Amino acid sequence: MSDIPYYIPINEWEPTFALPNKWGRWEDGWKFFKRLDLLDTASVARGNEPIEVDVEFHASQVTDLAREIRVAEVESSSGPIKEVPSQVYNNVAEDEACRCQIVFIANLSPEEKRTYLLFYGNPKCPYPIYETDLKVSGEEYALDVENKYYKVVLAKTMGHLKGVSFKEGKAAFSAGGPPMMGGHGVEGTAHWNPDWSDEYTGRYRVTNWEKPPNYSVVRGPICVRIKRWGHPILALGPSVGQPQKVMATVTYTFYSSVPYILMESRLDVLEDVRFSDCRNDEWLGMGSGGMPDIAWMMKEGEICYSTYSQGKSWRGEDPAWMTYFNKENGDGFATIKLAGSAYWVPEETFRTIIEATLKQLQKQKIKTSNGCFKSDAKRSIPAAVPSETAC
Predict the structure, then answer these.
(1) Low-confidence ranges of the chain (pLDDT < 70)
(2) Percent helix, strand and coil across the chain, each rounded to 5?
(3) What is the maximum alpha-carbon separation in the chain?
(4) Are strands 46-58 and 6-8 parallel, antiparallel or unpaired?
């Protein structure tokens, strides 16, 4: 299983002839289905909510998961069944089981329960083709991604977020170029982190990569996810200092039909190191991009205000959320801290985790930029600092 919140085990399935008659017939050819009931427990409407599901299947029941799976919504207790666009990724076959992740967009009213059906078992069906507002151009990790709310440009060198423009209003921000021109890293990016510094040699950054050491890409009509990982390095290059002490992972997730982006970052400390600091959620260019007003919320719930010109400091406070906005026209950009923690992992435990992860990546044929899979399993892993942010 993965850390995806919804999971349907291998033995939870039914034949399609068991569908209630009042729901109507599903298309001929599909033999099996799995059921997912979603319940909105909050009094908040869930419009265009991305749903990711980890699903297991009997290998004897499927031939090609990406070809066969269809997701359908039961519109009410009496039907009918309506197909919704979906995307299948991370297909893995293990012994007598097949597993994958499925993502689709759901809509729920406050406190509503809604049923979704996952159909499969039709080896003769065509591959599904869905048209959505999520558009992607570019190769590998160096992509331009847009939906009906925004357009994001990723750096062509290391793949970090370079700029964002919005489809409504005038708000936009971009690094504009290399550091001497206001950007960050070898190409100039608006997203700075994650990075770290020690007491002696300076700051180690992922934005100093000329190319990410390792990367994986999920690309489809519902979701684009770019994950890159490796050792942050000094501006002088990877042979200077001690970059091997820390491993960084950065993941961007873009969905169809939603106005936000997910950024997840993680720092794994592989050897003893004396930190001066480490950072994971800093963005450049917002205050000078037509959004001069600033607000942030402290951990205790206090909301503070300032302006870009006043420069009232929030630094060192680790705010729960922060926004740059323009109170005159309503434009704004915010980062919301969804999760964050630091913890110690015993060396032997982390070695086991790394070895299992590498095996999983090999099964999924994840690419690395040097054509091989690298393991840090021989190194001591005393700590991990993960974080997830929506922006």
Answers:
(1) 1-3, 171-172, 174-186, 284-289, 308-317, 342-351, 353-391
(2) 10, 45, 45
(3) 72
(4) parallel
By residue count, the chain amounts to: 391
Report the distance separating Cα 255 and Cα 283, nearest Å: 21
pTM above 0.85, yes or no: no
The Cα 84–Cα 130 span in angstroms is 9
Question: CA nearest 85: which of 101, 98, 69, 74?
Answer: 69
Instruction: Classify 6-120 by CATH class.
Output: mainly beta
Token duo for residue 117 = 């059906």
Q: Please, are residues 92 and 142 in contact by the beta-carbon 8 Å criterion?
A: no
Cis peptide before 20 (omega within 30 of 0): no
Task: For the chain, give every domain's residue range.
Answer: 6-120, 135-390
φ/ψ of 94, rounded to 5, equals -135, 110
**Torsions phi, psi of 250, nearest 5?**
-130, 130
The answer to whether 31 and 121 are in contact (CB under 8 A) is: yes
- Sign, CA dihedral 340-345-349-351, equals positive
**CATH number of this structure's domain 135-390:** 2.70.98
Cα 176–Cα 181–Cα 182 angle in degrees, nearest 5: 70
